[in-house]
Amino acid sequence: MADEQNRPKDAKQRQRDEHRAADPESGPLTTDQGVVVDHTDDSLQAGERGPTLLEDFHFREKITRFDHERIPERVVHARGAGAYGYFEPYESCSRFTRAAFLQDPSVRTPVFVRFSTVQGPRGSADTVRDVRGFATKFFTSEGNYDLVGNNFPVFFIQDGIKFPDFVHAVKPEPHNEIPTGASAHDTLWDFVSLQPETLHTIMWLMSDRAIPRSFRMMQGFGVHTFRFVTADGHGTFVKFHWKPKLGVHSLVWDEAQECMGRDPDFNRRDLWDAIESGAYPEYELGVQLVSEEDEFAFDFDLLDATKIIPEEQVPVQPIGRMVLDRNPDNFFAETEQIAFHTANIVPGIDFTNDPLLQARNFSYLDTQLIRLGGPNFAQIPVNRPVAPVRTNHRDGFHQSAIHRGVSYTENSLTGGCPAIAGAGGEAFSHYAERVDGAKIRKRSPSFEDHYSQAALFWNSMSGWEREHIVQAFRFELGKVATMSVRERVVAELANVDAELTAAVAAGIGVATPPAAAGGGAAGGGASSGRAASPALSQENLPGDGSIRFRQIAVLVTDGVDADQIGRLKAALGGDGAVVEALAPQDGTVTASDGGDMPVDRALPTVASVLYDAVILPDGPAGALASAAEGAALRFVRDAYRHGKPVGALGSGVGTLAELEPGVRLAADSGGVEVDRGVITDRSTGGPSQEFHRAFASAVAAHRDRSRPSLRG
């Protein structure tokens, strides 16, 4: 009975504890993200008598919170996948930023990362050709910091006022709502053909970067040029880079299309299963730093989001690492309700005047207000800062805090709390930058070169990457019904590269423009000089050699050597790979010793596109009862055609020769033979250490690009 009486008291105490961080008497005034504020009576403006600036996130949050104390209903958001983890710096970054989470290597900052496709709705497939979002929320001691990036370092447009036009163009066409999760249609390419600034990002979209093998093997970029600010107010321009430890690897287009049917959740499942298995994805955070004195030292504008800083000019400096080690408990509550905003920054990080970034600083907050049903979305657990929050915001839908006292500054009734922080110290302070100029709608001439970096990207690609880009253009433009749109796109490509233009034109039935037919690119600059940046090619981003959570299929049937299968699983599984035995039917197969060997999956339920490599093992009856067995035949031939590692042991070598004629095999005398990602060993038993090393190395390399059968 006493316990029953105590329960209400315990509940009230827990409630008081939960809301203590919101007590206005416990510290200085903050934003909803927990960033301490030192001034709340004047908005940020261009000069004492100038216009209010869009980047004043405290003003916009304050007035928008008031405007939305009565709110519209919530709207669902795009498809994504997320995970929790932590970030830790390698060393103090105090020489270029005061941001607290970049100072102490012993401090781990919690993070939540959301990966997403851009164009399609929640019901679309993972492996569509699209940009991928790579957004990271850092729950820092100074408030939430959101690095809202993509897997491309550039974007399609230069000014955010054109963002609605771009999105309307790339979304399904308005008359029939087709296509879903795809960019191969008239309205996108009509927009591209009339907006040359899109070309650089279009080159990335047509490359294999647009169809990543895994979120674990995908780069991320902050896209914009931001500012680091030191404790004494010194600014440095910065671009952010996420680099996966496993290397940067992609699907080929044929794989991507089949994955849409075989497993539309291919990337989401891979991320979830990898974390559940303990194969935690890891990324290195790097920065490109440019001193303010060098702002105009480049042949492009640092504020132009359609441009990169080539790494050969400004190397990427690694400053920390991020590990994703926990899956969400509830997709809706966490992955769907996570709210990112480019203006969620902390002391030590600030904006530049990039016109696309300035627009995003308005748009993201406005979007979250509608998408999450009102202004209190920062109170949702997945968005809640670890830093204390003390505001005068009140009411609105989904208000969960129980406020006491008055709700204005200044006041005398609660001792003046929450008080304004003193200048400097813990409070956020905007970087002091002189701003002069007439109020006009005009883009700087420094933004006018739309072709040089598109050509730089093309020039930096290896042969197979160029081949896939041509095939992607042919596929996309081949679905455009309006011939004049095809012709305009090809005419724009003539400003990038003559070889590219001629190859695309020949595949889509339009004439090669005179500029391209003459053997040069009208754009000049990077194209005519053949300037290249090797850092842009996936061929130069192999990763750390790990095969963690790579999916390896072993094709088995009656008569297989079960002991060898066990050794394969132990050896490759010890390297972190997932090895599965696939048979023509589920259940078990009869091993060569007469016992039953469990089967992981039945061949008819899977496909080569869902695996990274395949092995045909040894056995008196061979790995397959018949080389004509349909599912096995297709499995091996698809793996070989897509350049994936193929291994064969003992009698499995002969089976491989039947299934895929023409491959180079190990000699009859035995020994390991390696040829274009095909690793064979006719000796029985095993696998030998030599086979293991060669096969694991081939898997880490992802695929062999030299096979003549590899086509995008």
Automatic annotation (TrEMBL):
Catalysis performed (reactions): 2 H2O2 = O2 + 2 H2O
Cofactor section: heme
EC number: 1.11.1.6
Region (Disordered): 1-36, 517-542
Keywords: Heme, Hydrogen peroxide, Iron, Metal-binding, Oxidoreductase, Peroxidase
Record-level Gene Ontology MF annotations: catalase activity
Stretches assigned to the Catalase core domain: 30-417
PROSITE patterns per the UniProt record, alphabetical: CATALASE_1, CATALASE_2, CATALASE_3
CDD domains: GATase1_catalase (cd03132)
Bias (Gly residues): 517-527
Transmembrane segments: none
Listed Pfam families: Catalase, Catalase-rel, Catalase_C
UniProt feature, compositional bias: Basic and acidic residues: 1-23
Protein role: Decomposes hydrogen peroxide into water and oxygen; serves to protect cells from the toxic effects of hydrogen peroxide.
Name under which the protein is recorded: Catalase
